[in-house]
């Protein structure tokens, strides 16, 4: 989580850093509250809900790993 806040604070102007990180924290909290309800609507069975969550977060993880590898290669050369 600190990586997200650090990247947000580096990508916005200094004056808006606090506002941007606050909005990110609020959106993450809303997502944490809403996501179980959304998953339960999508998958009526709890096993399917856990599996769909694992697949989603696995895909997000792979995308972020690929993005970081690309960024490191881009800065290296």
How is this fold's topology laid out?
Layout: H1 2-11, H2 17-42, H3 46-76
Helix pairs in contact: 1-2, 2-3
Structure at a glance:
This protein has 77 residues and is mainly alpha-helical. The protein has helices spanning 2-11, 17-42, 46-76.
Describe this entry's structure for a reader.
The protein has 77 residues and is mainly alpha-helical. Helices cover 87% and strands 0% of the residues. It has 3 helices and no strands. The longest helix has 31 residues, at 46-76. The protein is flat, with a radius of gyration of 16 Å. The two termini are 28 Å apart. The mean pLDDT is 84.
Number of helices: 3
Strand content: under 5%
Q: Helix content range of the residues, please?
A: over 70%
The shape is flat
For the structure shown, list the relevant keywords.
flat; about 80 residues
